[in-house]
Amino acid sequence: MLLVRIAVLCFISLLLPVTCCAQSVWTLETSGTAASLRGIHAVSRQIAWVSGSGGTILRTLDGGRHWTKCATPPNAIRLDFRAIWAWSARDAIVMSSGPGVLSQVFKTADGGKHWKQMAANADPQGFWDAMVFENRRKGFVLGDPVNGRFVLLATTDGGRAWRRPTKRSTPPGLKVHDNAGGAFAASNTSLMAGPHEPMLFGGGGAWVYRQTSSHRTGQRSWASVQAPLAHTGQAAGVFSLGYHAGTIVAVGGDYTRPADSGGTAAWSRDGGRHWTAAQHPPHGYRSAVAWDAAAHAWITVGTNGTDISYDGGQNWQPLGNGSWNALSLPFAVGPKGRIGRLNSAAAPRTAER
């Protein structure tokens, strides 16, 4: 979506103070940048990569105690890197979001010292939202609709070459719903794909698109269902999807109303075919969700705070009111260079309800 549609309303994060643990669940770290950060990928608890506005790319090798600024890719100082994916301390790939040629992909094999452009959006109507990989070779880029259909690029060589399906080979079902708008480039988690999980993406209108396959012919297509999240206007919908042990959690809401808790979370246990709204939702709009193996719970963040669920996304309780954009646990990133490391031991061990 247009960058203005997902701009962070930082000042609102101070509204509606939230009761939280005596000990902060986030340890703030020194990033050395004031960039807006939305890309985060933790290779391990020690190695992580971060990306953001102004061509910013950071890396840590010691669990976040020190963050090092990587070289800016060629001619990328004005790009907003909304997505980053990494396999090691040396190998990473980064994607920028923006209209037309402002959406690009770069790759490094030397720890961020040098970057090579791998793809650029040649369609002036296009806007890339998310990038995920199933393994070291197979990955996908999700883009907003062009001529009424979502764009889905694919790579089978680790991001060196990307292909866009032809009109004839494009699987059916990727047509955008009326007045639904596109996907959201808020946290690089609007698209979900993995070796042991279904392929889904969410977007405006709270629509969730799910890849299906014919048992008889093997032909792939897409089916869509509207999740019970806020969906009035193009600023509302499904912003993030997470998967763990057969449960899919969707979070979102209306980013222009960050304190509204209605329609901010739902869950599915049948691969995304049916969705149930959270009984006690997060306490505001949420842009990212992830499973925390250390706490055995779901964590979700947004511009007005953090929430936790111990029962598969059915009930959520607040953990704090700091402003965050994206998650790759144990790390979170946010506006003005904000990076935090989750202190799972500080989270309540049982649900309040």
UniProtKB/TrEMBL annotation:
Keywords for the protein's UniProt record, in alphabetical order: Signal
Keyword Secreted recorded: no
Keyword Glycoprotein part of the UniProt annotation: no
InterPro entries given in the database record: WD40/YVTN_repeat-like_dom_sf (IPR015943)
Signal peptide segment: 1-22
Coiled-coil segments: none
Protein name per Swiss-Prot or TrEMBL: Photosynthesis system II assembly factor Ycf48/Hcf136-like domain-containing protein
Record organism: Acidobacterium capsulatum
